[in-house]
Design a protein that fits this description.
Blueprint (H helix, E strand, L loop, with lengths): L3 H8 L5 E5 L5 E6 L3 E6 L4 E7 L26 E2 L23 E8 L5 E7 L3 H6 L4 E9 L3 E9 L5 E3 L1 E3 L2 E3 L7 E3 L5 E4 L5 E4 L4 E2 L4 E6 L4 E6 L4 E8 L3 E6 L1 H8 L10 E8 L5 E3 L4 E12 L1
The chain binds 6-O-phosphono-beta-D-glucopyranose.
6-O-phosphono-beta-D-glucopyranose (BG6) binds next to strand 20.
Length: 301
């Protein structure tokens, strides 16, 4: 596992990339480029914040987020891996997998010729992770900070037998008021409505929000626009390696129960998750790599 001193010695880039410990010991990378800034935690290779230069924050991090080793953080870009949602066979295993609550190591960090900063993390396997995921594999999260935020989750089968994988980039976006937000790009897609007994429905027109929303959109195109009149901007989400998109807002009651949203916290966020979930399961053969990528860009109206 990387130490703070080692991270700064091996990977710091003058005035652009440095590492620090948050109270409680959480190690984070602080990135500051000419195009945008970000913080990324070593636990979970979890992007906590991202703000393009001259724009407001794009990623939502709860004001009440708790930074406790081994616990998930409310907000940012949590990685759900190697399964999305509950484990299919064992209810004792954590929802959305273990990747977001274990340490990752930084294997490479560099300034690209155009000034962006790229960090390449690899999940550290342990007896505890192998007890839940007995498949020979590696998983990397490659984060690039520039005018856009780019995330690439690459899973490689290093064993001799195929395995199945579900996953998501569970990204929380900052919005002005969820009640005024609409999402384009899902029109005509079938979805599983998790707040209505997992019934299958079809999206007609843009998606808007007036109650708890928890949906897995199927056969999606990899292109969504979050329209936000309150903040006078749109967020463009493009992705590859994914045919499912999860959209989530817990609304008032559920957010209250979670204890890390705060009063009305749900009004300022929406999750649009680039996923391989439900019907969209990845089967990875020996030596194959699956790449799930997402790019996030803020466009002023
Ligand atoms: C979403 C799921 O992806 O994540 C929801 O569709 C879930 O059902 C939500 O409630 C948050 O999950 P967690 O484990 O981070 O509280």
């Amino acid at each position: 596992m990387n130490t703070l001193a080692e991270l700064n010695r091996r990977f710091a880039v003058a005035s652009k990339l440095a590492f620090e410990a948050l109270p409680g010991g959480f190690l984070v990378a602080r990135v500051d480029t000419d195009f945008g800034s970000a913080t990324i935690a070593l636990q979970g290779a979890h992007v906590l914040t991202y703000q393009p230069r001259n724009h407001g924050p794009l990623i939502w991090l709860s004001k009440f987020a708790k930074f406790v080793p081994g616990k998930s953080v409310r907000g940012g870009v949590p990685i759900c891996w190697p399964w999305f949602g509950p484990h299919s066979a064992n209810v004792q295993f954590p929802g959305h997998g273990f990747a977001r609550t274990v340490p990752w190591q930084l294997v490479e960090a560099r300034a690209l010729p155009d000034g962006r900063i790229r960090l390449d993390f690899e999940l550290i396997q342990s007896d505890a992770t192998r007890a839940q995921w007995p498949h020979a594999s590696t998983v990397r999260n490659i984060v690039t900070v520039g005018q856009e935020l780019e995330v690439e989750l690459a899973t490689t089968n290093t064993g001799v037998a195929p395995f199945q994988l579900s996953q998501a980039l569970h990204t929380y976006f900052e919005v002005g008021d969820i009640r005024r937000v609409s999402i384009d790009g899902l029109d005509g897609s079938d979805f599983i409505d998790k707040v209505d007994g997992s019934s299958r429905k079809r999206q007609e027109g843009p998606l808007t929000f007036s109650a708890e929303t928890d949906r897995i959109y199927l056969a999606t195109s990899g292109h969504c626009v979050i329209r936000d009149p309150e903040l006078a901007r749109s967020i463009l989400v493009t992705s590859t390696g994914s045919r499912s998109t999860v959209v989530w807002n817990p609304w008032i009651e559920k957010a209250d129960k979670m204890g890390d949203f705060g009063t009305d916290g749900h009004l300022g966020m929406v999750c649009v998750e680039t996923a391989n979930a439900a019907d969209d399961i990845i089967v990875l053969k020996p030596d194959e790599t699956h790449r799930l990528t997402a790019q996030y860009r803020s466009i002023k109206d």
